[in-house]
Amino acid sequence: MTIGDGHDLKSSRFSGDEVLEACYDNERALRSGDRDPAVEKVQEALIILGFPVPKVGITGIFGDETELAVRSYQEARGLKVDGIIGPETIESLDSEFPRIVSEPSVSPTTEPPVSKVPTPLTPESPVRSPRASAVRLAGETPEPVRAPHAPSVEELSVPPVEEAPDVEPVHAPAVKPVHAPPVPPVREVSARPEHTMRHVETKPPSTAPSTAPSTPPVTPEIPETDSQGRKFHSSGMWNVDSFLEIKGGRSMHFEVKNLGVLASPLRIKANTGESRDAMILSQTIADFEFSMVGKEPFNWRFDIETDSDTALLEWYLYSTWVPGEPEKP
User: What are 40-54's pLDDT values in tens digits?
Assistant: First the structure.
């Protein structure tokens, strides 16, 4: 094996390795069972090229996994599949990696003869780079660099600017003030109407004679009794959860009308333990009945629950006892 005889490996990975150069010169081969640093280079090259040695890795030992990786590489490259690193396989591996760029050798002992024929020291080049700096040889006197003539400031004349003609001022007509009529004061409106209070104010029927002139009712006239003869007790509005504490008779009857545009669920719980609930459609009426045993009047408490944020419920209460009547045992 001779390195430098012209038949050498060219890549920087394998070039100069005596064992691999001998394989390239067909003087030896790497095979299963060999141990050498050259085996490490072959294992590393196979892993880089995508033929891994997964269990053992780079060990420098040519084992079964290394042989299998070599066979896989040979088959992929169309080489003789024998699992041995010979001249053909190492040449193929060598060609997979960058080659060494050789620098021209310079002999220190031989110098070219100096010609005695005088030659011009500053040859003129037909092409000059506009950005190249001048080179001064020994014995030459540099020529002074002359800057191009720049025009003086006085040579630059600026044309006179003509004066703009006088512009007559524009007088806008006077604007007559506009007197707006006074705005009448607006009565403050509570942000929480009375019917949204937790405690619902009832409207008992009035028994006192009215001295005010009669006006036509806006809403239909409320019946004095219901279908079972219970007398009108009071009325009101519900649109949130609330409660109603009131004195009434043994039998209480709520007529509840949904004034909203959507259906509203409603549940009424009495302090007697009774509970009634219904889904009231828009513009329809639902009935809620409650009763107790004992003397009249009875202190009723009703808890009102509605799950709708848009509820608008008008209620009328009928009772077997109304305010102003004597107690009944």
Answer: 999 999 999 999 988
